[in-house]
Amino acid sequence: MRASALITAVGTLTLSALVAPTAQATVSGSGDIRILNATVNGGKDVVIGTTTKTIAVTVTATAPSNIKNVSLVLFHGTHLNTDEYDGVLNPTSNQAACRAVSDATSTCRLTISGNPTLLKNATAGTWKAYISVVAKNGDWTSTDPYSSLRIQRKSLLTVNASPEPVARGRTITVAGKLSRASWWDDLAYHGYADQPVKLQFRKAGTTTYTTVKTIRSSSTGTLRTTVKAAADGYWRYWFPGTKTTAATKAAGDYVDVH
Is the whole model's pTM more than 0.85, yes or no? Predict the structure, then answer.
């Protein structure tokens, strides 16, 4: 069944930090309905690992007869209604929870199921939103696509600094691994190769990490470098992320220097 067939004549909704419809959008409908503002995932990138993520959506819209329902579908591709897509995430319910805030305006909430078993790894990155809204008098509007957002694969980092304790001026080896989620292929984390990762240090008694050097992950995602021990403190790796993969940092590993 085509994904758009799963969308009944339901309302609209907009994305987190999204603005006006794209120049390539197809707008349909009847009556005077406007989306005033909306948020998906609190305005942040959607990061999905190997388990389902529930994505919260809030939208405020207005119509003379007020709003009956809204719906938002996320898809990877060009348009949803013409089947120009290769990935789709649907609302968990056909009915949003709408609350009137005035005679013509309502704020509606719903959730999207971010199920990794429905996602291809190759679709990580930019996604788009199909939006529809229905008023209580039957007027409706839809925009395909309304705007875009980013859905990323979750990443993980480990770190181990040794030996510990260590004499001042001696060499410390800092090892670790960068991995990221594989979606419907096997729902597991695999090493992320050839990525820049920053080695950072926070001196004991302070709150700020400082970058010491940048290294690249191996073909299997492993990390390994050496530094001189100068003071007690915490060592960690930090990955700034890419378009397709979320940023992450390891918990600091404390080394006692004497």
Answer: yes
